[in-house]
Amino acid sequence: SSTSNETICVGEWAGNVIGVFTSGGDAQGMNAAVRAIVRVGIFLGCKVYYIKEGYQGMVDGGDNIQLATWESTSSTIHMGGTLIGSARCLDFRERPGRLKAAKNLVELGITNLIAIGGDGSLTGANLFRQEWPGLLRELVDTNQITMDRLTTCSHLNIVGLVGSIDNDFCGTDMTIGVDSALHRIIESVDEIMTTAVSHKRAFVLEIMGRMCGYLPLVAGISSEATMVFIPEDPPEGDWRQGLCDHIKESSKTDARRTHIVLVAEGAIDRFGNIIKCSDVQKVLTERMNMDVRVTVLGHVQRGGRASAFDRIIGTRMGTEAVLALMDAGPETPACVIVLHGIDIVRTPLMKAVETTKLVGQKMSELNFDEVVNLRGRFTHLPSVSPLWTHVRQACNASCSLPMQKILRVAMIHNGQPACGMNAAARGFVGMCISNGYQPLFIYESWRGLIEDKVEAIEWSQTQYYTSAGGSKLGTSPETAEEVGVCQIASKLHEHNISALIIVGGFEAFKSAYDFLLHRDRYPELCIPINVIPATIANNVPGCKLSLGCDTAMNNICKACDALKMSANSLQKVVYVVETGGDNCGYLAMLSALASGADACFIMEEDFGIRDIFNVCKQLKHKLKFSGVKQGLVLRNENASTNLTTDFIYRVLNEEGKPNFSARKTVLGYTQTGHTASPYDRCQGIKAGCRATAWVLLTLSQCSQGGKVFTNSPSTITVTTQTSGQESYMSVENLALRTDFENHLPKDQWWLKLGKLLSILSWPLSNPEVE
Ligand code: ATP
Question: What range(s) does the Phosphofructokinase domain occupy (predicted)?
Fold first, then answer.
């Protein structure tokens, strides 16, 4: 069942007892998952127990198993690591250990378990479930529990959540913790880059991931690394020579002052020999005469605050885990909660564990093709080294090609700036060049086109684009219609543009729609056109998560965390924070979930003065009875014309007396961010590459003898995601699902999360609330 989070209802499941534990390596976002499990469990009338120190706590029992309270999860959502402890436990690997664990659980009536850990922890959980009837029978036979206990606890339900920074679990796009680890890596690489460039030094960085190259691969894409060594896909032939050739080749097209090489902890060559950072350093020093330093990031990668993404998936997965337990019966196989695109789904636990284990087996057999196959989605990322090598070779080759024979494909930015726009531009340029097309940038949006600000781009011009925030091309919110479709059409023709990619927000979508409507009058518009959604508002029809949102959400969370910390004085304070997003409440709602806010006001959810009073009463009640010292209320900038942020702040400040005072913060342009988050960088590159691939394919289908013509509505599209896979939806169809007046899609998937926010925010029901 996909994202059933919206269908929570109370009553039916009261009396169930749930145990939650974290096991194996810790990961940021585990606390968010535990918080959601405890609060949703309590909301449903269940008892929830913490099982501390993983399986060790389960085996040892006693104080290790404690009843969880709503308050105990306060102010935990942002924290890294796991507050309930994790351990590796030898005892649990043996049956006598599991017998003790079963006795400890049965004594408290715990028959529902949520295991948060890696494949080892989930394998242990499944084995425990299979053995459960036999373990209970033995406990009865040895008079350790009564027959009554056996009857009431006859079966054990298990749900797994994958918490691991390695992203080494098959069947999920991302595990809890991996995004935060990427934040730590990228922060370090960005910082190393400044000193590396100053001294023209090369850096070799060791990145975590014993068996899995996800972290180094994505970090490599996000930081424009020269080369990445990962266990799943070792370089062909002699890697030492390959590395030197690659650097020599790239210096012909890149004016690089530095080279960054990322090496996974478990990197190997095609024969299974380990590739260490020191090996890479030796090659670069001795064969390339470079000044090379090695940095091992180590446990820094596990540390620090959880990213917004990890808080959200931790929260949503934790919620889904409780619902899966409540749906489970004796015959229901154990499941694990995974992420497909932006959907949270249940999948059979053992199948996923077995596939994950098979990866290890195939790796030891050096069967790399099979390993890449089994790993699934992430290996379909445009692997940096091969793609960019291809780009460089094509750059060199294209010098000898007559340029007029190359079809020209343009990119333009349209709308407000958003992080990821520049990464998309780099992906676009790379794909065009490697396929023999000439990439063009149109600067300063549609007006820039009219003023002929069009330039043919070389690969080296996009260096350091991936991380840069804002729009390097220059962008404007004016749509094509506002600037003049007729002039735009003639300029497209004049500059011999055969296909167009528009990166931006609702304005980009609207411009593409304007072109669709005007194709009959202007045949110059009969070219393939694609829109890559990039806006912190997340309001492009057909798109579930646009470029820029992740960076903005992280910036909002950072600001809210800081506000909450500043309130740790004697006085109780409620902060009212205004977020961006135009008319769309996505940013406010998701940031509220990620920052542990108490309430959120958005345009899509009608609200009035009475709702503000109710929030005020709830906050008074909460701050009085729960021991919590601060409250947080988020409001989207356009939530209401009259019920402004200032108005809400004044109502809370007045009505909150004497329990709390209120303060107000408008985040404004700080949300957009000056460097892109790892997610936006990687998604930007991917979107740029894939949209270009679609455009080039469409171009090849509608061009003849150098002439391009298509008037099919299917050739003006938006790059979107369906079940985690890119798809290209026609603007004509999407227009039917668009509220043009409010600049919103008619269906917004995230609205159902509003209910979850209210469940997670209120500890006790307040009889005064109307
Ligand atoms: P990570 O990905 O961080 O390594 P993990 O869950 O895979 O996490 P493991 O050390 O493999 O980490 O497992 C954690 C604990 O789970 C072990 O210490 C052990 O108690 C239990 N466990 C693992 N495998 C089994 C098994 N086959 N049978 C019983 N218990 C197991």
Answer: 18-324, 408-694
